[in-house]
Amino acid sequence: MTFTTDFHKATVYQIYPKSFADSNGDGLGDLRGVIGKLDYIADLGADYIWSTPFFVSPQNDNGYDVADYYDVDPAYGTMADVEELIAEAGERGIGLMFDMVFNHVSTEHEWFRKAMAGDPYYKQFFYFRKGKGPGVPPTNWESKFGGSAWAYVPEFDEWYLHLFDPTQADLDWENPDVRHEIQKIVRFWMGKGVRGFRFDVINLISKAAFEDDPDGDGRRFYTDGPRVHEYLRDLNEATFGTDPGIITVGEMSSTSMEQCYRYAGADTHELNMVFSFHHLKVDFMGNEKWVLVPPDFARLKRIVFDWQTNMAAHNAWNAVFWCNHDQPRVVSRFGDEGRYWKESAKMLATVMHCLRGTPYVYQGEELGMTNADYTSIGQFLDVESLNHYEILQRKGLKADDALRIIQVHSRDNSRTPMQWDDSQYAGFMPSSPASASASSHAAAEPWLAVNANRDHINAAAEIADPDSIYHYYRRLIALRKELDVIAFGDVEPLAVDHPDVFAYRRRWQGHELIMVANFHGHDTEWTGAEVPDLEGFERILGNYADAPHANTTSPVSGLRPYETSVWYR
Ligand code: GLC
């Protein structure tokens, strides 16, 4: 099979293997489970699979705490399984993208263990620093998961930096030996036939200065740091840059657009594209996620349009997405889980998939999977959620109020098991523990509880229904390959100030595409000179079966709840 190497036309399907498919009935998803579902992903039309990490790990952050980059965690399978996965995906024209976590390693990684044993060579792989006084860390920086970003080591009377969990120690990229080890790892996986890489929080690898941040959490000292572009160019040159068939995406935490022109410029020799998250903070208060505020639609549009037009003007490329393993489910977040579940899920997909960029679909998004239906804190497992549940209560919130916030923002919302069918465990694993195979710790249940709405939201039901969200995603993924205007066209924002309408025009070599969506659950009117004249256009997609209301000005002047349509000429 041949691969779609043009990432402008490609769609990436993201898998969180722990929650995708469990082949051996131990309650944890695994690589053989993924292999068993490759035909499903191929039918959807995806060109790449990005899998979150399955390397050896104590799993304190579900694999983002890597203890050995050269081997597979036995909970997920074996090296032979990875090789089979790469080969079987390749048979279907699908490339594997691996998730490389290089800002930090697990404290169980050999490098860190040697450092803790006092080996000076490996101590320099990390940031060990003296505190400002007894019991006072070197700086006041906060961990992204809550608490101080420094952990104390009594043996050395020093602290080491961990921007995430204390068991995720930050690597010191200033040390050239660290950079060479990382390059070796990337080349190792290239040698196995991996076709792409996603680099975890890669814009945090260059730390500017270890100073207190009087009015922030410290991020300004390590976000988009002074040497990050140099490090990425070196990595590119020494590894994936030698193979134009490999695609790369960097996860950019709290970045700026100006930096992304360089990270993802067509000729800057860093990465192919970036994930940025500003559009997913429109239901935060500033950078504060652990609050309940309604999504700010005006801000969402402004941010999306800014990134679309400016990245294009600077010849740089976006990854476009609503969902991943760190975000709540988009239909619960910006759509409607109830009456307009199907319409709103299709509308959200349309808004994203007609943009300029490479779309990423997160497992279950193509089914309209919703947030977890958990009603007690005991059902949540994510370290970030559990930490913030405590922090919120220390700040004075009642347990119930803290729980409400966790229910809305928890990363576990996207990590509930994939809903394959309507059986007890949604087909994620065999329903009866008796049918579990010879796994030594055969569990009766999935590691994280299945959502009860599997009875109607599941792959089997949606494959059978031609009007399903699943089939709508297939169409969108196919359209990007059929119409160059989607892959390559310019983006002109429309209805910028409208309180309900999300709309834009794409143009490419005499072809035009117009996407119109009502982002809200009530009827709306779109009038005025700006409403496009759709004379000569064909309606090629929409989420209401019947034609739009006839209207004197334009067929898109009156929009029903969450109505969307796509027009082409
Ligand atoms: C990224 C990952 C997230 C992880 C963090 C630390 O944000 O997507 O899941 O917890 O990096 O590695």
UniProtKB/TrEMBL annotation:
EC class: hydrolase
The entry's keywords: Glycosidase, Hydrolase
Coiled-coil stretches noted in the UniProt entry, renumbered to this chain: none
Superkingdom classification of source: Bacteria
Domain (Glycosyl hydrolase family 13 catalytic) ranges: 14-415
SMART domains attached to this UniProt entry: Aamy
EC number in record: 3.2.1.93
InterPro entries in the record: GH, GH13_cat_dom, Glyco_hydro_b, O16G_dom_2
GO molecular function (one): alpha-amylase activity
PANTHER family referenced in this protein's UniProt entry, alphabetically: ALPHA-AMYLASE FAMILY MEMBER, TREHALOSE-6-PHOSPHATE HYDROLASE
Annotated family: Belongs to the glycosyl hydrolase 13 family.
Protein name: Trehalose-6-phosphate hydrolase
Native organism: Bifidobacterium callitrichos DSM 23973
